[in-house]
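INTERNAL AUDIT FORM
Audit reference: QA-55
Scope: verify that the stored structure record matches its stored sequence.
Auditor: D.O.
Record contents follow.
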Amino acid sequence: MHEYSIVTALIEQCEQLAANNNATAITRVEIKLGILSGVEPSLLATAFDTFKLEGICRDADLVMQLQDLVIACNDCGKQTEHKQRNVLCGHCQSSNTHVLDGEDMMLMQLELEQL
């Protein structure tokens, strides 16, 4: 399950940002998770709850913004948003498209506590 390694890297990034800002705790971790990121949200949440227990993130809530797939059509020039993995243009049904958003997982915001 690659969600474990993703969460490990996420927590390490959070810990580094907390150290850079002299924080004593992280209370909220907000991420954007694209539909094509290859990450299963429920597995990621479980992994986060498991690995956060022994560090500065132990009291943190994980907030996930699920990002729809946004594609642009190279044939008709229009953009389409999909809530599922579908790269066909919603206007002309062309498969000649490219992804604009929805492939990434990004750390968007941290809420930190300082002494």
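Auditor finding: record pair retrieved intact. The longest strand covers residues 25-34.
Action required: none
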